[in-house]
Amino acid sequence: MSTDRFLPKTVSVRMYRNGEVTPKGALGGLGDCFLLAFPRPDTPPYYVLIDCGLFQGSTDTSKRLQHTMDLIGKATGEHLDAVVLTHQHYDHLSGFKLAWSTFEKFTVDEVWLAWTEDPSDPLAKQLRSRRAQQVDALRHIGQTLRLHLTKARAALDPRQLKRDETFGAQLEALLSFSDPVNDGKNSMPLAEVMQAVGQRGQVRYFKPGDTFVLGDGMTRGYVLGPPRNLANLRRSDPSADGSEVYLNSPLRALVHTAAPDEATPAGEENQREAELPFGRHRLERRIDHLYASYGDPERRWRRIDTDWYQAAGPLALQLDGDTNNTSLVLAFEIPDSGAVLLFPGDAQVGNWLSWDSVQFTVPISTGQRTVTAVDLLRQTMLYKVGHHGSHNATLRERGLERMTHPDLVAMIPVDGKFAQQTKHWEMPYGDLYARLLTRTSGRVLRADQDVDLSKIAFPGQVTQHRDFVEYRLPGGPNPPSSKRRTRRDSTK
């Protein structure tokens, strides 16, 4: 099968592996990049590109994303009918940043963004401003911790040093989802990446309840998220019921206590006075023997100088989840069969829960019909698994268990080895992955490994190429059925 033009005769989805290009094949990358093709009778398909990125810290990131963008250009003739940017995370947008020289050659008709990116929306503006403040503050905390470790390394107890170094690395890993501090020459912030991509075509901002018809004149799109309810936006994890940590006031306290400012008067006494919460006249006599004991090198393991940094961890986790909850969630309903392709970005719990309050009214020949999230989930035939298969990005009873289509297929953009061995993240999450295999009868397509197509039957056609995994949905007059034999094309 040619890796050039992508001209399927049925609705098709390519999941680019974003992997290392080797003679033996490609290793899957930890990042989203999906090209959807909706056939049209007399013209090339209607192409929709949903995200393109790779997690920071992956090897040869720029080279791999440049290769992927080259492939997309060849597949589409360098024309995209729509580019979807689901949310501001590096593993979804960095391809536009690091392969911009290729992408800027494309013609783009439309760019689809969530309402949270609309500069004219007051609530969106407020969210973006506060998010930027929190990212800056957390970066300041990380930088302060690194400075402290550099200066005080010799005086720290080895156990404390290891703990603080581990925490600093974890904080940077979480923040790298939002935006790395510096990519060298490619230091454009992700917000500016979105703006730059938006200048390539007509921008459309979507909110829950919006519907639209694609350029093939038949396929209907439904917008399920992100919610406009702040409680849902801030609810990232099932165990944090009702939590509203998002951009909350504890951050400000951390910023103020993070470290002395460079403008602090020089000298130990001036430094101490600047740190007092009240005037020197209120200061009791210092207990010198306590200070001497606290500074005793033999008892340094008991010191808590850097314990306050640990409070930044939950804030960084919450920020990461809240950004995921701003994901633009799209469902595409294919005419005739009614099958649905569900692309939730990295939506987490609050985003998913909000879908039950969304209803759609669409025209039909006899008038109009009402469509709900329950309807769309029941009709879902292809599910792009959220957040690389994380535990809190696919709901159970109000999510996967509602996907009852007999031919359900799941696609997971994941590099399990990188996630687990390098970042110590369980992706895909074991219990979720097991349930996906059960619900789909084994029809789970991953970016980092191939399926044995001699044992697993897919309706339609699966192609496992070294650069991508492609699924062409069944078409024609007969209804889809997994009992039919899978057409296989495992070009390497």
Automatic annotation (TrEMBL):
The keyword Membrane does not apply. Residues 470-492 are annotated as: Disordered. Pfam families: Lactamase_B. The keyword ATP-binding does not apply. Residues 482-492 have a biased composition (Basic residues). Residues 47-100 form the Metallo-beta-lactamase domain. Keywords: Hydrolase. InterPro entries: Competence_DNA_uptake (IPR052159), Metallo-B-lactamas (IPR001279), RibonucZ/Hydroxyglut_hydro (IPR036866). Signal peptide: none annotated. One of its GO terms (molecular function) is hydrolase activity. This is MBL fold metallo-hydrolase. It comes from Deinococcus xianganensis.
